[in-house]
Amino acid sequence: MTTVVIADDHDMVRHGFRMVLSAQPDLTIAGEASNGNAAWDLVRRLHPAVLLADIRMPGIDGLELVRRTATSGLTTKVIVVTTFNDDEYITRALRDGASGFLLKTSAPGLLVEAVRAALVGNALISPEVTVRLLARLGAGREPLQPDPPLTPRERDVAKLVARGLSNDEIGAKLHVSPGTIKTHVTHISTKLGNVTRVRIAAWAWESGLVSRF
Predict the structure, then answer these.
(1) Whose CA is closest to 124, among 154, 100, 97?
(2) In terms of domains, do 155 and 87 share one?
(3) Is this model's pTM higher than 0.70 or not?
(4) By three-state DSSP, how is residue 106 classified?
(5) What is the pLDDT of residues 35-69, one digit of tens each?
(6) Is 153 in contact with 184 (CB distance < 8 Å)?
(7) Cα→Cα distances 199→86, 166, 170, Å
(8) DSSP assignment, residue 139?
(9) Which residues form the HTH luxR-type domain (predicted)?
(10) By CB neighbour count within 10 A (0-12 exposed, 13-18 middle, 19+ buried), where does 137 fall?
(11) Same domain, residue pair 16 and 111
(12) Residue 132 pLDDT greater than 70, yes or no
């Protein structure tokens, strides 16, 4: 069972995260904290697999939790979940070892996928954050060209990936199974050069497939 600690100073946010994650049979909430100091105590005492941390909290903030956890020798992965879509926060969090950066406006399924990605050493970032960073770093760069071109259904899936939906949520919208969506995502990735899910989202925005949130 994968253990998760939730750190956020808003009760309703913690409740929402707990409801989403507790619905997964392999995830369990080991503890909750309403401030950074309590979160750090829980991490050191419980050694959870994943810590979900807001940026602005009383006491130690989320960015300091990322730094402390990464330098402590603990195996806990920290995912920042915040309302602050700020380049400085994003850059610092990822530089200091965050295993994901999600906006609280992201679809619930993306939270589950971020936890699972962190467990295998990947970092999932909200699509809108990724696209803005890539646009800043690669201004003027031509978007990737899928080879061969995407099918109409693959384009539909790519659009929904770009909006931050999970495979389950995309499947529900398109009335197919999550396994079918996973296959579509794999085909899209292959056609774009074996890229990550986040890069698929970025491509959808860069290429104009998705125009706005």
Answers:
(1) 100
(2) no
(3) no
(4) coil
(5) 999 999 999 999 999 999 999 999 999 999 999 99
(6) yes
(7) 20, 15, 17
(8) T
(9) 143-208
(10) exposed
(11) yes
(12) no
Alpha-carbon gap, residue 131 to 110, rounded angstroms: 16
Q: Write down the pLDDT at residue 77.
A: 94
Query: What is the token pair recorded at 42?
Result: 């829980």
Most confident option among 26-35, 100-109, 165-174, 202-211: 26-35
Domain assignment present for residue 164? The answer is: yes
Q: Where does residue 96 rank: exposed (0-12), middle (13-18), buried (19+ CB within 10 A)?
A: middle
113 shares its domain with 144:
no
Q: CA torsion sign, 184 to 185 to 188 to 190?
A: negative
Answer with the one of 70, 100, 125 that is the final residue of a domain.
125
Structural domain harbouring 79: 2-125
DSSP letters along 16-83, please? HHHHHHHTSTTEEEEEEESSHHHHHHHHHHH--SEEEE-SS-SSS-HHHHHHHHHHTT---EEEEEES
Q: The domain spanning residue 147 has which CATH number?
A: 1.10.10.10
Query: How many separate domains does the chain show?
Result: 2
> 51 and 97, same structural domain?
yes
CA angle 26, 180, 146 (to 5 degrees): 115
Residue 132 lies in a domain: no
Q: How far is CA 208 from CA 10, 101, 134, 138, 143, in A?
A: 36, 24, 14, 16, 9
- My answer on whether 38 and 104 are in the same domain is yes
| CA 174/CA 160 separation, integer angstroms | 10
